Amino acid sequence: MRRVQSLLDAESYRLLQLRLAADPEAGSLIPGTGGLRKIRWRGSGRGKSGGVRIIYYWARVHDTILLLMMFAKNERSDLTRDQRKILRRIVEEEYK
Fold it and tell me: What percent of the chain is predicted at pLDDT more than 90?
């Protein structure tokens, strides 16, 4: 939760949750990850270039959205191959 608070204020986080609840397929599919998605979101108080990337998984059977990873646009542009493999494994162990 600390990571979320450092990147999003309460209102931005609430709006993100509402967005994903209304449209779980809002984010772009990340190829080769077993269904992980990435959505771009505006970070709190960071201006135009202060975007946040949120990696999540929609477990359709359980109608549950897992927020797996969040990072600022200026920290990295994308997940590494190892990060994709680890996150995919987590999802497979929990939900498949």
Answer: 56
